Amino acid sequence: MSTVTTPHSGLTASPAAPGSGEQPDAPAPRRDAEASKAAILRAARHLLARHAHADITLKAVADRAGVSAPLILKYFGNKDALFARVMSFESDADALLDAPLEELGRHMVRHVLEGQTLRGADPVLRIVFAPLQGEQGETLRANFRAQVSERLAGRLSGPDAGLRAELAVSTLLGLGVMYGIARGSHLRATSVDAIVDRYAPAVQAQLAP
Question: Between vectors from CA 159 to CA 154 and to CA 165, what angle results, nearest 5°?
Fold first, then answer.
């Protein structure tokens, strides 16, 4: 009887007998590595926006990402290496600041609110959970200052650009905390459009020279 080689194993197996109704085992679909890594990073960012770094386990990240904890170790090495990746705010700032300056206040407010309503949490808010001590907290705060506040300040003209940028960001974070973390009942009962109309001028006022 002729034999066939099964994919991946290098072993041989007899083909299914004609008319038996059985088919040779098909190779299991391989999960795309890049998709898995992206899912892990999204899960870690989501958890870091809600919990202190020390309280997050690899199992929690794995469960949310739909992968196994050993797969996280394979891709990232350990928990600290994983969270070194998620402590960067560069991609978050890209989305947060993606509007012309004259429309930026409205865009930033809407972005944070929709981060809560559509995506469960806005990743910028993970700065709220930065630990008060330790290397991770220092890294998260330094990244936030450089990649969010100072980047915004670089777009502003006129005096006190750094101060105005920090005030705009703090105004935005306050809204995000009240809406998504404290879950203020009146805020949650109000449409995003109505909140943007009321709140965006306060943010935009800090952006104007």
Answer: 45
